[in-house]
């Protein structure tokens, strides 16, 4: 029904505080970099002038050098040339002759302006220029027509379940479907047919049929057969969010009771058919965990939470409250859950591990039953009066008789976490939601297996296999997971000592490299899951692992501002340091290889674009370069993905399809966008897709472009989108004419453009 305990508001404040601290840190870093650049420029200007003369003299000899060179994407000036020597030259690195003048931005409402000067375009963010050169095949830049792509996305599969911080969010429907939620999507998963349907009318994280939007939280009532929304309750009424909801039972769901997330935790009762409020009262300043109607009398309502159980009576629109009396029994810190017995008594589960039986008319404890070590997280009634309880610390599920005599028990594996909620399938078979975001299916006799699994902390690393329908993810939970897009399942999962932030498959498909938070990276064999190679570059987190198209090189982007280049041999199992790209003045965010494997394009945290090459060239020559992949968020071909007034951090990731027809974008506002490719003009239109409840950290197309994968940050959700429509043709031939088609099944809400 709602977030566990009461840390949501505190967590929200911590997130906001951290965001402010991050912004301050970025501003300080940008200022320090600017001052350092000015000093270096003054010191190196005479030397650079001499080098320019020397460069003109040596000319052709430079083409024989084996060093990697870089150039800033700015107006052509010799002073912006940067170099990287091989490991056997000058100890493997060379300081830049002048730090490049990239582009930094602060969140602003100012419009992004562009100016045309000959063969270049300057995009201004807060008055600072990013210069991009127009490719030779574009003759009339001003006449380019930007349209949404003909391709569309359709939600195909949702990986994950939100059990870490929510409760009472797993139910079994007569249709044979388990219904649960993660991010902004309510999933209806048929446990036998292994199919999914999705309710997608929510626009922010779901707690339970709740639009958890801090500005306008509300409750959606919808038909589980047709997925049609029947009623939207309380829009603009609830404060901060909705903590718990319940339908009345005695009158077949005529009423809905709601606890909001305000300081007073307002309790309100609503007419479901009319959508009108019937009654409202302040419940308590303490956290409230559950609310429900008495199944035989809709005028009686129970709430429980931190150190309390309240019995409410509703009469002619007015509430009367009676507090449960603990008497001789120790008052627990938290009453986590409750159910009604067949006799009408109330059974509560608490943080002391006890089940308390409350008299239906005395509001006093009649009996205390020791149930679990640690908290009782959930209670579930069975037909015939039996009871199921789920434990936290002991991870046990216990079956009790109607008179609370224990009958059966089992313990779920530690890797799945504690029992969060239980749903009865047929009296024998059960569904179990766990605190490590898994849904288990099984019986006391046969044990339990996971039918839904997911990450349990923020995710950033995402890579798709070059030839198979599988993809790999990694994140702050230290898990590395390999998923199958056809069978919609987890193939394997391993746990590392440090958390992973980026990954990349070797083009031969047999190994995958994973970059970690400490500067260490490892290469895993896909079949054996064994580490076949590992190395460490610096002591800061890694952000990119990218193989060259032929697999002969690996580029490792780091937060220490360097790109490390490795020779790759023995089918991706042996790595030898080739060089280090020294030139960025901030951490590496994205990089791509050219199709011939001789050049690298990279972006950095201060919104700089650099090109690296084996031969010394100028930036102008990079305008016609063809790139094997396109994930850099700054560049001429993707200039149109940026909104006016964008902060440079508004776009987290970008991925061009292998067909080079479309580009997918992951933004900081929970959206996935689909643009035509190229999209080199500002205000390029796109199709926008909801589903994530947190910043979208990464996107990636499968090898055949049949699907797009997107991953959320804090929502721990992976969405698999089917790519619909589209056609053939080279991207360079489509700059002036792209038509849009609309395709949407499986979701009642189409994409917005």
Automatic annotation (TrEMBL):
Superkingdom classification of source: Eukaryota
Swiss-Prot/TrEMBL GO biological process terms: microtubule cytoskeleton organization
A cellular-component GO term for this protein: mitotic spindle
Location of the EML-like second beta-propeller domain: 459-723
Gene Ontology molecular-function annotations: microtubule binding
Chief place where the protein resides: cytoplasm
Biological classification of the source: Eukaryota, Metazoa, Chordata, Craniata, Vertebrata
InterPro entries to which the protein is assigned, alphabetical: Beta-prop_EML-like_2nd, Beta-prop_EML_1st, HELP, WD40/YVTN_repeat-like_dom_sf, WD40_repeat_dom_sf, WD40_rpt, WD_repeat_EMAP
Residue stretches of biased makeup (Low complexity): 92-105, 737-753
SUPFAM superfamilies xref list: WD40 repeat-like
Name of the gene this protein is made from: EML3
WD repeat start-end pairs: 452-486, 581-612
Location of this chain's protein in the cell: Cytoplasm, Cytoskeleton
Pfam families: Beta-prop_EML (PF23409), Beta-prop_EML_2 (PF23414), HELP (PF03451)
Alphabetical keyword list: Cytoplasm, Cytoskeleton, Microtubule, Repeat, WD repeat
Occurrences of domain EML-like first beta-propeller (ranges): 211-442
Region (Disordered): 82-113, 728-753
Record protein name field: EMAP like 3
Organism in which the protein naturally occurs: Sparus aurata (Gilthead sea bream)
Keyword Cytoplasm attributed: yes
